[in-house]
Amino acid sequence: MKRTTSALAIAVMVFGSQALAWEATEGRPYEGQTVNVLAVKSSQFEAHEARLAAFEDATGIDVVYDYVPFPNMREALTTEMVAGSGDYDVVSIMDQWVPSLQLLLQPIDDEIAAQGTDLSDFPKAHLRHGMLDGNLVGLPVRGHVQLLFYRTDLLEAAGVTPPATWEDMVTAAKAVQDSSDAAGVALPYGKLNGQNLMVWMNLLWGKGGDLFGEDGAPVFNSDAGVAATDMYVGFLQDDQIAPAGSAVFVEQDAVNSFKQGNSAMLPVWWWVRSQLTDPEQSKLSAEQVGFTALPSVAGSDRTTYTNTWIFGVTGGSDNKDAAAEFLGWLTDPALEREVLLDPELSEVVAVHMSNLSDAEVNARWGGMHQAAADALATADGIEFGADWPRIAEILETAISSLASGEETDTQAALNKAAEEIAAIR
Predict the structure, then answer these.
(1) pLDDT in tens, 342-365
(2) 3-state helix, strand, coil in the chain (%, to 5)
(3) What does the pLDDT read at residue 84?
(4) 323 & 206 share domain
(5) Is the pLDDT of residue 6 over 70?
(6) Contact 343, 361 (CB under 8 A)
(7) Which of 261, 279, 292, 419 has the greatest number of beta carbons closer than 10 A?
(8) Range of the domain at 291
(9) Is the pLDDT of residue 17 over 80?
(10) 20 and 31 in contact (C-beta within 8 Å)?
(11) pLDDT at site 115
């Protein structure tokens, strides 16, 4: 499809000082078509919807959003896949669900290439969730990373700087504990939706390990896996830098410990920052909460566990080209940037490296996005399969049993988990 920049496109596709790279298809060939979008309820997606007039004016395509709350989203997607009704042309899918919902999606490689979308601007850890069997089936639109939040006052009083490595974190945590009543770091070790894996995975990668080998067999029970697990559990048991009771902490318990002033550091999703500085639920002021990229294992690249939402075109869509046209507009970095810089909004989510490293974006958000970019630059992300929920349950049980002391042999616990997982793959 030949591209041209019409006067209308120029007039309506400029956000702030940055113009969209996306251009409407010459001749408005999809004029009069409607693209129906099934999206999880999100203020970010509502911000996109509020800007649809520019896209609709340029293309003649009508776009209709239908929002579903997160707890009901997977059921709604499954229903659409099973029914094959084509009620929706574009759907949003969370990374962990993509493999089990792959029959809902169709390849869009050629259409997205024609849109001129720069796939290299997406971090690998996010983009991989839009790929199935070597085909592009979706593009990242919403993505979360982990950052290390820390108490600026407590670290300063202890005479330490924000840690760049997990080893440095232990040193900083002990210094804080020597100079205050706060625990060094709040971490989740209890069982809930795989939450105790989200830091452990970074240690596993940092130690040179992975969940599975090239043949798909579990390899997390390797020497690297044992070392990573001993390190994670050791924060609680040997280093004793986690709060009392952490063996049963889930993510929100760790967050609460930090925002109530009981812990000095907290590795967690970047969107949690709003909780940590909210005067209605936190004892901390904005000046007391700092952040940096997630620490790395000494001598290894930075990593971050990620959460990604892709948008793809349904197999039942009768308007595939129009839907792809919409995806080209939706995933243009200039649209994302405009939402990030809108003074009326408080959206932090960005999935383009160009925006994560953007000077104006970082000026508004205090450098949060550059911290995310630093981790994402060398983060591979995780490969989810259709059996991931059961795999996560087995793994989190192993971590929890070691943290609680129910199991004391790390190698044995990981071997048992590997055997159980091998049996279901």
Answers:
(1) 999 999 999 999 999 999 999 999
(2) 45, 15, 35
(3) 86
(4) no
(5) no
(6) no
(7) 292
(8) 146-304+387-424
(9) no
(10) no
(11) 84
266 lies in the same domain as 366: no
Is the domain of 73 the same as that of 53? yes
Whether residue 292 sits in one domain with residue 153: yes
Q: Could you give the C-alpha distances from 106 to 76, 85, 110, 141, in angstroms and in order? A: 18, 14, 11, 17
Q: Which of 239, 147, 263 is nearest to 202 (CA)?
A: 147
Query: Within 13 A of 15's CA, how many CA atoms are on the CB side?
Result: 21
Average pLDDT for 226-238: 98
> Model-level pTM?
0.91
- Torsion 195-199-200-206 (CA) sign: positive
HEC string of 367-406 equals: CHHHHHHHHHCCCCCCCCCCCHHHHHHHHHHHHHHHHHCC
- Residues 6 or more apart whose Cβ sits within 8 Å of residue 145: 269, 270, 294, 304, 306, 372, 375, 376, 379
Instruction: Report the amino acid identity of residue 351.
Output: V
Q: Can you give the pLDDT at residue 19?
A: 74
Q: What are the tens digits of pLDDT across the range 131-143?
A: 999 999 999 999 9
Q: Beta-strand (E) ranges in 272-348?
A: 289-293, 307-313
Stated length of the chain: 425
Secondary element (H or E) of residue 64: strand 62-68
Q: What is the CATH number of the domain that holds 93?
A: 3.40.190.10
Do both 271 and 407 map to the same domain?
yes
